[in-house]
Amino acid sequence: PIQTNNLEAFWMPFTANRQFKKAPRLLVGAKDMHYTTADGRQLLDATAGLWCVNAGHCRPKITEAIATQAGQLDYAPAFQMGHPKAFELAARLVSIAPDGLDHVFFTNSGSESVDTALKIALAYQRVRGEGSRFRLIGRERGYHGVNFGGISVGGIVNNRKMFGTLLTGVDHMRHTHDPERNPYPKGATEHGAELADDLLRIATLHDPSTIAAVIVEPVAGSTGVLPPPKGYLQRLREICDQHGILLIFDEVITGYGRMGTPFAADYFGVTPDIMVTAKGLTNGVIPMGAVLVRDEIYDAFMGGGENLIEFAHGYTYSGSPIAAAAGLATLDTYKEEGLFERAQALEPVWADALHSLKGEPHVIDIRTIGLIGGVELEPIAGAPTKRAFAAFLDAFENGLMIRTTGDIIAMSPPLIVSEAQIGEIVDTLRAVLRRLQ
Ligand code: PMP
Is the pTM of this model over 0.90? Predict the structure, then answer.
């Protein structure tokens, strides 16, 4: 049996776990849609781990590919050499990515992909003779990981406060969630495309020719599932084009079928200049991220030119053989099992199921898009997050894994979820809500 009483002495947990480290909820196994807990219970996974296990857990094809690769070529430096699987994975990624995003840079996480994308954007502007473009624009309630670039452009103020000035020249657009104009239960999608004009406000404030890039999650995930208003991303694209600003989509959550399309760019019909991905790329099994860029950006770097200062950017594990093998097997699984199409077919089933929670105790808003869902609870006065956390604990004890962010329950089941399991998720959640104080 695992001794859990002194784990805190050895393991420095996620900050969010600080107060719970003496009694960690240990997961010891997983298969398809379920986790097994240390005390032998089955949990239905309504979160795909942390929005990443899109093909479900412990899929034999993926685990076998990892084992085979580990026994064949375990590691290969990506300095002045390479190995076939990384090239093959890059080609496969380009084949499913939106037209125009034809070149891939491998990282090991979402946070690394974000910082890589910001560096590519700034360096590209210099290479093309636009070195005065040094500003990076993020958005309130944006989440872009925890590295320095990501927390600078991210919109969670508490994630920044401890770390001094961070990147300078960063500003944040207003977030798009406007319950006043999009009253529940309609969802936050009908009105508000003009909120993208907040980029114009910022551009006017600073001079648009100083802005290098804008980064947004097509659907803000970690801050509570905020689908954009209709036309918002199109408008953002137009403004970027008008002013020579690069548009970066952070698709760490929305990529790899989560929206029922390969990427959210396909769902919304808007192609960014740089696309940031991770998580579902390897089914969350092996750390890996990928940044995709347009031809002009690739050509600017590969072609050199007088403005290019040779700089090093790459990680020891960029495109490692085992990660690349996992990525290839994951993309095979998505394709062979038609999981993106499956997610698309389930989108209305998922939406109807979650919206059936309307009117349950404490529910003040419900938002769904693709196979993502958010159920916002009325906070307990003076004790924010307490009610949602109580919901998490109750669900965990009753066989359901959900995730909470603030007072919002966030869900994103593996794309293999069945209609019956969607029913089970919602039934368990309904019972949880009815027991909540
Ligand atoms: N960007 C977005 C949109 C994310 O949701 C996340 C992680 N939830 C990240 C970046 C950071 O990814 P990672 O945790 O792999 O560094």
Answer: yes
